Protein 1
Amino acid sequence: MLQQQISFLQQQLREANRKADALLKEVASLRNLLERKSEEEAKQKRVIKGLAKISQNKSEKQPSAPASQEAVPGQPSEKKERAHTNNGAKRKQHLEVEVVEENVDPEDPRFNKDLARLYKTRDVIRYELIPMRFIKKIYHVRTYTQNDEYFSGKAPDAPFLNSQYDGSFIAGMAQLRYMYAMPVERIVKLFNDNGFDMDKGTAHGLLRKTERLFENLYHVLGDAIKEDTYIAGDETYHRVLVDTKNKNGKGIKKAYVWVVTAVNTGLVYYFYHDGSRREDIILDYIKGYRGAFQSDGFSPYRKMAKWLLRLACFQHVKRKLLDCGDDFDTKVIVRLANYIYHQDHKHIIGVDGWTERDHYKWRQQYALPVMRIIRKKLERMAADKSLLPKTEKYDAVHYMLNEWDGLMNIFTRGDYHLDNNLVERLNRYISLSRRNSLFFGSHTGARRAAMFYSLACSCRLQGVNFFKYISDIINKAAAMPPRTPLSKYRDLLPDRWKQKNIAQE
């Protein structure tokens, strides 16, 4: 009798424990839900804050107002707040990654879960990395007969005829090669190390086929750039292997890649003409354009001032002035230029209702008086008989005087940039490739790279994932008939592709 009562009480205890566990789990679930919601709200706030910082487009860190007697009257003297260090910073939540949850119970042999009641739960986080995954999909395409008629399934189309490689595979290669500057040899080695046997010839062949597939898309991109009313341009060098050997017995040539950026549209176009830096290459491309073009003082760009509004670059001017070292006069002009940057970055178009018209009026207020002071100093220095030709100071003074009209044109609108740093930052992709790959294998390879870099950097300006973009459009481009109008390809460029995908979401 007593044993039955004990069993009954134990059963009631277990039932009570189960109910308590259920309630605790429900409370824990609600708590986790609230925590996730709080984390999501925090993430949104961080994203908004990050976008605000990006929109400022700060091309350089601005020093506090100089204490020199040459400081411009009215220049603010308030000190900037010291930047926060990592001490005491919160750990990143990484809300974007896949989450796997697992309950961890005690392993003590004395522990009996049926008799125990949950006391508390402590979350411990470990981030795991799964190496590159390759998936071999086998589609068993079945054919049936029905009423003397055959019905056959259809496997997904591949970008290339008789090819087993999906668009995502090619997109991954392009991302590694042109976004992360990995030579093809290293990509093949990476694939082999992760269990996918591939040779260099196959990798190059896939990139070659993709270039031919994107030929119309690339052509449309070059035209789309000139639809913008504000373009920035530059050129940078790379090395390329050629058949003709130089004086050192090496078949390597210093070749140039041209780049133009549609500032408002956010598209980038690199192009390559056998590595030449001839002025007719850029002049032929820009012929007929009537908008604003921003660049450094390279002579072909200066010639554009005959038929378009040319904008110069304050950073190029400053670099030449800084090359003069401790020269007092040039240091004064540098401080005045820094003052212009400081004032210009006080307001951001689109933030707190600040418009392009507001910024134009602001520039007329702060910039024009400072530019008049700079002009007088430059003319005084140029007239100084002690200023010898072929000196750094002489070159800096006359460079700025030659660029004067282009510098003043910046202040004719509120949305023109003070410098050409946007393009120069994009050219770092070419510089990184130059350091990692050393050279292009041929002129053909250089032209292929120009096409891929155009799409990659356009995706970067648009905030588009390059891998997802290529994975999608490569199949769409492959499905287009040979005589498809070029206007259809315009919708595949990153700006419109982004708009379409946002609308679908």
Note: The radius of gyration is 31 Å.
Protein 2
Amino acid sequence: MLHFQYPIGMTSRNDIHELIHALSKTERRYVKLHAGFQQGDKSYMRLFDAIAAQPTYNEAALKQALLHEPCMRNFSMAKQYLYEHIIDALKNYGAYKDAESELTDMIEEFKILESKGLHRQAERVLNKARRFAENNDAFLRLYYIAIREYINAVYSSDELSGVRLEKIIERRNYILRQIENYSLISDALFRFRIIQRKQLYPRTAQELQKITTIIEPLLSLDEKDLLSRTAQGMYSIAIGEYYNAIGEPDISLQRMEQFLRFEIPKKGTMEMRTQIIAEHALYAQLCIKNSRYEQCERALKAIENSIKTLSPKRDDVYVQLYAYERWFVSSLALENKRGNCHIAVAHIDEQYPILTEWLPRFSKQQRLAAYYMMAYAYFGIRNFTPALSYCNKLLSEGEYLTDEHAFAQILSIMIHTELHNTFELDYFIRNTTRFLRSRNRLYQSETIILQGLQRYARAETIEEKSQIAQSILDALQTTFTVYAERSAVEYFMDIRTWLESKV
């Protein structure tokens, strides 16, 4: 079990409330200490205390409580000033020195030394910054450093400046190739992802050709063409997702394993670490879809270990949240897919104190995925009330077109079937069918399930219901010979086992 507490607060539409409630106790003390160094009126700190005391934001109550405070002469300006003060304080907070900040400090130190004419000292700092940036794939910073090295070499009186200049030009050109290499791979991946948001698997020759055209420039690349760890990671994700989408899971996992080290670095920039976490999370997801459970556990263990080793710094809070949401969702998906819904529910109960703080801060896609996996876990142990509650939470977040959103609608229908809510069933089935069809999201298997469940709900006898359940099973068996159809359904629900229980 993971045990950690970091400053993740409540959600609110008000920025200042969200910010204050995202602060740790130590950070709140530092904000107040920082205010003590400022001149002028300090009444805005009473606004700070008042907002900190509110579980949910209530502007009317704030105005009433602070009616006679000087800061209330212009409430909007007071809020803005307080917000800026908090950000300024956090910038000076010592615990907030991440890898990116370290690199920024080095460059600033270089600038100061240069402005004082201390060129040799400045050069040593610049060399240190370059090595740091190289280790963290900080391409844009690297290019800036290369330009500064170039300028220094041009204007240097050192007799070796010509030799140095050639090396610097070579290094600068290599950085440019790294940037171009990264852009090629990332552009392909992001364009592919946009298509995947609407449809996870291609169902027609035209759809297959569309994604192949996007990924095709990457297929001819080999390891020597990948000029950075970042490029390797992006390539691994793009190629892995592509081969899985076209029904080649073995190749997909093999290509991902080429760069996966099953460990996540403790240090480095936020971007680098989140990407490596993303690689492990995707690999785990593909392993679940293709029943490679031991391989999945290995990837999830790497993510779990990274969560445990992070410290409560600015970047680490984000990285930890990023890692946690993917670890939690995939852990539930793994147990659900194994048929161990009772273990998944126990996992939810175990993590509930953390989830209370962290779940509202999940990215929308991961939050929807978490809602779905929790709903399905409770459905699997026939605890339909929380199952329906989590489905409703997911569906209430708008018509956000994800697989989780589509299957949550089907799961809701299955729950209402179990609860014998005949009226709700007819409405949900018609509404879900219309919703999925309007977005060209309706797989053949989903059509069979929805139409079959509609007939099942209207059946009057046990014998008739049993026959309908069997007919749905038979029809699904035919469609499941198609990889896209089978994979689209089986990752989210064991529909066959449920139907067999009705036969």
Note: Residues 99-180 form one domain.
Protein 3
Amino acid sequence: MTELPQRFKERMRELLGNEYEAFEASYEQEKVQGLRFNSLKTKEGREPDWEEAGVKTLAAETAKLLNMELTPVPWVKEGYYYPLDARPGKHPFHEAGLYYIQEPSAMSVVEFLNPKPGENVLDLCAAPGGKSSHIASRLKGEGFLLSNEIHPGRAKILSQNMERMGVGNCVVTNEDAASLAKVFPQFFDRIAVDAPCSGEGMFRKEEEAVRQWSEDHVKMCAARQREILEDAASMLKPGGTMVYSTCTFAPEENEGTILAFLKSHDDFYLEERECPKGLMAAVPQWAFFGADKEDDSERDLAGENGIEKYHLERAFRIMPHKTEGEGHFMAVLRRKEDGMGFSGKRSLPAYMDLKKEKDVLKELHRFLEETLTEPEVLKKRKEYLRFGDQLYLLPPQMVSLKGLKVLRPGLHIGTIKKNRFEPSHALALWLFPEDAKVQKEVEPDGTEAVKYLKGETLTGDTGMSAPCEKGWVLICTGNVSLGWGKMAAGTIKDHYPKGLRWM
């Protein structure tokens, strides 16, 4: 059992009353593990309502191939629990981005955010990429996603995960919220703010969170969260939706933060949503937990200044003694339609000058025509950006990011070499198998898949979709793209990135 800090236990006992014993007993139970299927990896996943129907078939097929039982997570369409003794992270499907291993409670955030294809969406505190890749799957390749992470090391991991999940319309930045707010005033239709927090809800899984906990840390997190919310709110369009979430139980960081925000933003309100199975309504009176009980002005408990009008009960909590998942808090904030909205001009990115880069385009187009079944899809696009010898395709809705630290300005297409073009791993994972003229299928539970992931040469004897003497071959597994290989003299040279290879 996790050894909980004594003061934390006292606080939770004060909050939960006669439920506390059940809450403490939940730490003796086995933790749960979850994965979420990625709709971007199947053509059917781009269709409306795939999450309601198609994912069930995919889950059944995957469970059979991986020889493990999958049980639906009740509050998210694409989420499933898997057994503790299973290892889905060490499987070709994971490397291909077919699913993302994610805490089941955390999956609820994007379900509440409910992004739609074509929208502009911001994931403000995005690492390691679970929520961002979930948002991207709901956008279905349409619209613009900005995934931001303030910590450089975590931002790199975020960028790698977005590449693995086959996301093409995402920009990854490494900035603070205030810097982004200057560039994107009232720009986004939806914003996810999974704020840095004291991490109480993850005590069962993360011992470091237990060691770092203190009441002072809770107060520091609450103050920081309020600053982040201020900047996030300024980037939301009138009529837009913002989901604030934490993985902590601390009321100061949850009900208290939301109340403070609503009291200073009369153009926002908590949107009423049906409470999914396994979740509970937030507790309005907890907003004053830890407040000075002698200060009536701070508490605002009654009369015209009462809290009833803020409807804090519309927010949600996941509690480990009530359901299978770790602690989480979500509040769906809606900005009123009133107001003029942003009236200024937004500058566009400096796209590659197609007239001056004829040689680059020539090699790119040659590769596209030789390798892809529908080369015109990429040939007709104009939003290309060149960083040295690297070529990227930017999302069409993107504005100029001048002055910001950008790790991934869009889809990495490949590297410009002398007299040739070399495609990126990101491009391979973005493509469907049928997009390539030549594919080699390796069995997901076979030796060839492992050989490929280890960087070893393959033969062209089996699994080929078409005869091929030389050229680029898309390596696939279970009808999901896995990476590039290059055929020559009957053998396929492995182009799986060295930094990702299995040992």
Note: The chain has three domains: 104-335, 350-391+413-430, 433-503.
Protein 4
Amino acid sequence: MADMNNNWKVIPPFHPEFDLQRCDYENGCTICAHECSFGEIALKPVKGPDGQVRQRPWANLSSCGACQRCVKMCPRNAIHIACQPMHTSHNYWTPEYVNAIWRQSGARGGVLLVGNGATGPQRRYFDHMMFDACQVTNPSIDPLREPMEIRTYLGRKAERFGEDMGPQLKLEVPIMFGAMSFGALNLRVHEAEARATRSIGTFWNTGEGGFHKSLREYGANTIVQVASGRFGVSEDYLNSAAAVEIKIGQGAKPGIGGHLPGEKVSGEISETRMIPVGSDALSPAPHHDIYSIEDLRQLIFAIKEAVGYRVPVSVKIAAVHNVAPIASGIARAGADIITIDGFRGGSGATPLQIRQNTGIPLELAIAAADQRLREEGIRQTVSLVASGGIQCSSDVLKAICLGADAVYVGTPVLIALGCGVCQRCFSGKCAYGITTNRPGLAERIDVDGATAALENLLHAWAEEIKELMGSMGISTIEALRGNRDRLRAVGLTAGEMSILGIKHAGA
């Protein structure tokens, strides 16, 4: 990682500013300095008019991530986060590029790491799609007075009545919590996810860091991952969950592996991942036993044999330009579920240039895959899950209209728990205790409160989905799967609308 500190060239993009008229430092308040986990706020001895020395908050102007923790915790509302302008008005060499070069030319150089999802200028297609609501001759439905069915099932669908469908996942809401591993996340967050999904009737994904033994009681609502590093994978692990997901790639970093630094590998993480304490957890870019669709098929059925064909097997891929034929191959290889992760998908640590310049938008990928599977007559053999950049309940429903059966959400989970999207997840210093296992920080997550927050989020989104469905005169979410006639484009090109399979508004 490139050294951000002790580099005279770097201009930090943010810094805290203090209103000393409101600040209570004269009475000994030091909450802001205590709550800052990045070392941005220090305490400076200042002699007052009475001759007494007091500790005044001071911005170091070196490492603020704009997490807003100090702002939220200040009892006197005396802090705000200011944007630090860079003195350049060049329209090509923008501050982002200049600062990146300064950082990489510092003491250690190296690859710049960031957290969360991509921030590039690429179009967010969800914002350019509108639902086609009912008027006059096709009446809407009032979800307060009429039943609305948002339950869905993931797995192979029957092609004819009475045909065996194989193992299924039953979702009371078409939303699951996406893959975020133990080590990248606090164990308390995993417990909150597990408890919330059991309460609501949906699923959470462990990510590639194994399944902690203390959470095995939540296995009926858990999806475990088999990734290239095979962390924590054993027969017991595979049989402890409701589904198994083979992770080929993810939207935040298509084509590259993962890295959990050794300083994060504590005793519990070591035991769960089955690696030595203090050792780097390296996930290679490829699975070294998968170099063809035939190899993938072999692994899919090896897992099915290991679990006695009791649970569905999913395959997760990053959204790339040839996602449609890849999805077709995966379906024919025997997968029950395919997860497609768009380039706006988040991650704890991703090389900046990979995040910003690799992959394609989720909306285009899911539409292309759904259309290809329909054209080949194999859509019913597999379920599609959309992931990467889902921001709200309307995104969920638009993804379903484009062809998804359900969605994964990741960053909304973190935000619900307090995350300010400061993009410093890789540092291990998360101010809210979410993406860290450091003592003193991890304890900031209250499991009961976190569980309630996630339950509230799912309840709220479910109600909004019902309202949206009612406005379209549709009472079952299955009737919207791949129903692109319910979407209309605003401001998209003919090529974009062709891939999405939707008409322009007014047409």
Note: DSSP finds 14 helices and 21 strands in the chain.
